[in-house]
Amino acid sequence: MKPDKNKQLMSGFFYMKIHHTYAIICMRANMKDKLMFLMLIPISFLITIYAKFNLSFAEFYATQIYPLFAGAISSLTSKTNVSVAEIIIIALIAVAILYTVTTAFKTVKHKSTDYIKNFFLNIAVAASCFYFLFVLFCGLNYYRYEFTYYSGLEVKTSSKEELINLCEILINDANQMRSKLDTNNDNTAALYDNNYYGTSERAKNSFNKVSSKYDILKGNYPAPKPVMLSTAMSCVNITGIFFPYTFEANVNVDIPPYEIPSTMLHELVHLRGFMREDEANFISYLACIDSGYEDFAYSGTMLALTYSMNALYSEDYDAFARLYETYSEDVKNDFKFSKNYWKQFDTKAAEISNNINDTYLKANNQEDGVKSYGRIIDLLLAYYRNLA
Asked: Which of 152, 342, 353, 369 has the smallest number of Cβ neighbours within 10 A?
């Protein structure tokens, strides 16, 4: 007997219908479980608010709990020189694209909105989990005691003369340090290492040195990691990023070489639990000048000099112009190279990235947003005031 084609078609149709119905039932049954994960969002907000108004709790967490997470996870991710964070981000982007396309295909094929609902629910669940982990692994550290609590530095209103004096000190240091460094083919200051992994190890060692002066900075943490897609980071004006889910300090190594050491140390500050950008810049400066490496000291000094001279530019242009002429030609060339490098990335993407970063900082207890980078000047002035 020949098989009845109509019966086969009907059988196949009912099988698909039953399979589709079963899939929908499973999705709806899982929704109740998934909705429980959404509770992580209000829980995260409550913990954050409590930390904001109870600094002693935030400090206890930063010094007693955070190091446990950081130590355990970073010991795993440090097994490779490759940035695990970079791999995760690329993988997440790929999965997000595939999941979106698959959901759209199933929605059209089955003519059902259940797939769309499940799609957005899954996105919400993933976001709530990531946010909760962000708060645990990073967010609460924004509310801890400031570094001045441990350093004894007194931040106060300073005169224009003090700012000018600071700039003069930094210019003199930069000129002397630059004269001891070799020059790359691109006419910029050369680093001592043949590769960026060597620079990373020296950055780790440099941080260990500065932590001998400030116990709060001590910790057995891995070296920063160069990012393979560094040029892509430059396109959105990012020099480095601390990725709290892997506890890695990731650094853009496409930037001008002399900027790399101070950037590496900046990200290591975040790994140590200090999240404020002004503090990260200042501690990076301290680590650079105490590192024992001339190229690191120059990198940190140029970082401090950039912010100090920018502040003077806004305060007294004539004084700025006069001091600028005291730069050595090599220092001037380094600044010009950096300016031209970043100018090529002055795009809409960079503007959007800056706005996102500004929003992020303001949402995490840095009311001045990206302007908070300028507070390094007050810390530098306080530091040199103590040395006088």
From this structure: 152
375 Cβ partners below 8 Å, 6+ apart?
Answer: 278, 368
- The model's pLDDT over 75-102, given as tens digits with 9 standing for 90+, comes to 999 999 999 999 999 999 999 999 999 9
Contacts of 281 (CB under 8 A, 6+ apart): 266, 303, 304, 307, 373, 376
Pairing of strands 240-243, 225-226: unpaired
Angle at 259 between CA 258 and CA 260, to 5 degrees: 95
**pLDDT value at residue 118:** 87
Q: What is the C-alpha separation between 150 and 135, in angstroms, rounded?
A: 23
Burial, 11: exposed, middle or buried (Cβ in 10 Å; 0-12, 13-18, 19+)?
A: exposed
Rounded distance between C-alpha atoms, residue 38 and residue 314, angstroms: 47
What pLDDT was estimated at residue 123?
Answer: 92
- pLDDT(53) > 70: yes
Segment 279-293, tens digit of pLDDT: 999 999 999 999 999
CB 222 within 8 A of CB 248: yes
What predicted TM-score, i.e. pTM, was given to this entire model? Answer: 0.85
In this structure, the number of other CB atoms found within 10 A of the CB of residue 274 comes to 24
CA angle 222, 228, 232 (to 5 degrees): 120
Q: Is the pLDDT of residue 341 over 50?
A: yes
